[in-house]
Amino acid sequence: EDQVTQSPEALRLQEGESSSLNCSYTVSGLRGLFWYRQDPGKGPEFLFTLYSAGEEKEKERLKATLTKKESFLHITAPKPEDSATYLCAVSARNSGNTPLVFGKGTRLSVIA
Amino acid sequence: EAGVVQSPRYKIIEKKQPVAFWCNPISGHNTLYWYLQNLGQGPELLIRYENEEAVDDSQLPKDRFSAERLKGVDSTLKIQPAELGDSAVYLCASSFRGVSDTQYFGPGTRLTVL
To answer: With an 8 Å Cβ cutoff, are A43 and B4 in contact?
Structure first.
């Protein structure tokens, strides 16, 4: 069974204090790993897709990396507007029935 | 380009009442998904459509939930009758061409069943 575990559940950072969020996954053949940002009362907003180990993608203060067992979302010098829940999801290559399996998310709070 | 549109944004009903949610996907997106999201959890798939065909509804509680996507564009998800445990956020998402493409989500409908 495909599984996604995110840690920590919640993270509180001071503005400018860099850190990383972790997404560990178990999947029978990875098709893609997705990162989403979700603000309170809104739907998930797409950030990145990673397809193979060693791949990295960046967007502003965020950088996502991928290994064979986990992905990291690195946040460099965060600002209060980066506060949100960050969701990780995987899509298995051989799974036609469950396109995306989501983790529970990491709630990030950035304090000014 | 307009994103995924959902309505209503909020709905409060009493248990045993029916309720319906509407979704209009991004123009040109053939695949449409309905997800359920409980507080503190990630979204869980309820049903997936490829055009007008429901290709995965294994997680849809068919005794009370139904969905349709007539003409392969917009979709409606219905609950009848609603139960207290149905209180959650119902998210709609779409992708261009199947599960290999990125899914884009709507704002969701927050349902409260009293």
So the answer is: yes
